[in-house]
Amino acid sequence: MLERGFAMAKKSRKLVLSIESPGGSASQSDLIGQMIRRKAEKDKIELTAVIGDVGASGGYWLACAADKIFASRLSIVGSIGVVTGGFGLDEFIARHGIERRTMTAGVHKRRNDMFAPRKPEDEAFTQALLDEVHEMFKGWVRERRGTRLTQDEARIFEGDFMLGERARTLGLIDGFGDVEQIVKELGGEKAKAVWLRPRPPRGLLRLILRNAAEATLDVAEERAATPILR
Q1: 52 is in which domain, residue-wise?
Q2: C or N terminus of the chain, fewer CB within 10 Å?
Q3: Where does residue 211 rank: exposed (0-12), middle (13-18), buried (19+ CB within 10 A)?
Q4: Would 124 be classed as within a structural domain?
């Protein structure tokens, strides 16, 4: 979808990204954000991001790939932080006489096991990982927003989400507007937005993706400690 958008923008050299996301995988946010920047710089495309209802955490990470960011006064913006979580079921399985059987090679292969008591060393390891991702997130925002950010970094980087009005005051967005309005400002009154949406998979690909979705249930436990931008 992004490839199609960049291809269509080669003539006008302008592209508007519609952001509607509360966040997601930290690694995917970074990969997509970097890909957007590479394409924009290679093709010399001016990028503008427009946040709808929400562009927070990973969604805001993607918005920062643009040269300018717009939103509505009531859009949810920011949430520049990292979270991970899970459940502790060690007392539950003990109470029900369930024995957990697992084998590993490597002392730290299984950290934060939901079926075992909490370990301080695992919590310290995970917190250090979250802090590292958070620093990368903050660095990306500083790089992309530059001097537009205010000096009140405590309010910007503590993980809070906020409405568009405050986001503009803090320099997280450049102004207010919706996609149609921004398209006309960039291309003139006769300009119209061309909405590109993912093409639904067909045939064999649909079957493969359905099976892949079912298979994700088998790896849910392993992914429980994956850093999430949310």
Answers
A1: 2-83+141-229
A2: N
A3: exposed
A4: no
